[in-house]
Amino acid sequence: MASTQPLLGKTVLITGGSRGIGATTALHLSSLGAKVVVNYVSNSSAADAIVAKLGADKALAIKADAGNVQDIECLVQETVAWKNGNGKIDILIANAAIGDLTCTLEKTTEANFDRHMAVNVKGSYFLVQKAAPHMPSGSSVILVSSSLTGVSQVMPNYLLYLTTKGAIEQMTRVMAKDLGRKGITVNCVGPGPTATDMFLEGKSEELIKTIASWNPFQRLGKPEEIARVMAWLAGPDGKWVNGQVVKVNGGMAV
C-alpha cells in the first residue's frame, strides 16, 4: 500500500506561496508530510495564516523579492538554516510571477518589460542556481508556465506575460539535462485558467463564463487540481519524468 505521506521528511521551498495556486500547493504538500517554506513579497498576513494553520514546526514564512538575486540567495540560506527543516531543499517550486495583461506590444514600457523578466525569468533561473547545491539526488525542481503558451487564439495583451513563460519552458528543457546529471528532476507545470482570487479579480461574471466555455468541461480549473500534479511530480511516482512541460487545463489546450 502506498504511503499516505510520501513526502515525509522532505523540505519544500515555494516562492509566491502566500496565495492562489502557491498557497494551495503549500497546504497540499504539507498534508503529504513535507515541511514547507512559504515565500512572499508583501502579503505577510496571508503567509502567516498558512504557518498558523500548519503549525510553526511544519511551516515557515520568509519575505523575499523573487525577482532580486540577493533576496533569493538569502531566501535559500534561511530555508537551509531553518531548525525545523532538514538542512537541505528536497522540492523547489518557482511559483512567483507577475502578469500585467495591459501589455500589448504598443503599450509595453522598458520598465514593465524588465520587471516581468526579473520576477518571472531571472528569479526562477537564479532560484534554481542558488538552491541546487543544497538539493540532494532525488530532489525535484518545478517551474511554472501557462497553458496559454500553446493556444493559437491567445490575445495580444498576453504578449509580455507569455514571452516570459516561453522562456520558462525552454529553461525547463535545458536545466533538466544539467541537473539530471545530479539526480535532480526539473519539470514545468502549465496551468490553464484557474479559479484563484487573483484570476477572478476584476473579471465580470460574463467574462468568467466565457473563459470557462473554452474548456470541454465548461469550467475553470481548481487550485487543488494544479497542486496535486505538482505533488505527483515531486513525489516518488514522478521520478522518471524529467524536462517535461505538463499542461494542466482539462483539455482547453492540447
What does this entry look like structurally?
- The chain is α/β, with parallel strands linked by helices and 254 residues long.
- It has one domain (11-248): NAD(P)-binding Rossmann-like Domain (Rossmann fold).
- It contains 8 helices and 7 strands, in the order E-H-E-H-E-H-E-H-E-H-E-H-H-H-E.
- It has helices at 20-31, 44-54, 69-81, 110-131, 159-180, 197-200, 205-213, 223-234; strands spanning 11-14, 35-40, 59-63, 91-94, 140-144, 185-191, 245-248.
- Strands 3-2-1-4-5-6-7 form a 7-stranded parallel sheet, with helices on both faces.
- Helix 5 links the parallel strand 5 (140-144) and strand 6.
- The longest helix has 22 residues, at 110-131.
A few lines on this structure:
The protein has 254 residues and is an alpha/beta fold.
Question: Numbering strands along the chain, what is their spatial order in the largest sheet?
Answer: 3-2-1-4-5-6-7
> In the residues, how many domains can be counted?
1
Given as residue ranges, the uncertain stretches (5+ residues, pLDDT < 50) are: none
> What is the level-2 CATH architecture name?
3-Layer(aba) Sandwich
Specify the structural class: alpha/beta
Q: Treating each run of at least 4 consecutive H or I residues as one helix, how many helices?
A: 8
Number of strands: 7
Distance between the termini: 33 Å
What does the overall shape look like? globular
The Cα radius of gyration reads 17 Å
Highest-level CATH class: Alpha Beta
Tell me roughly what share of residues is in helical segments: 40-55%
Keywords: NADP, Oxidoreductase
Family: Belongs to the short-chain dehydrogenases/reductases (SDR) family.
GO molecular function, one term: oxidoreductase activity, acting on CH-OH group of donors
InterPro entries: NAD(P)-bd_dom_sf (IPR036291), SDR_fam (IPR002347)
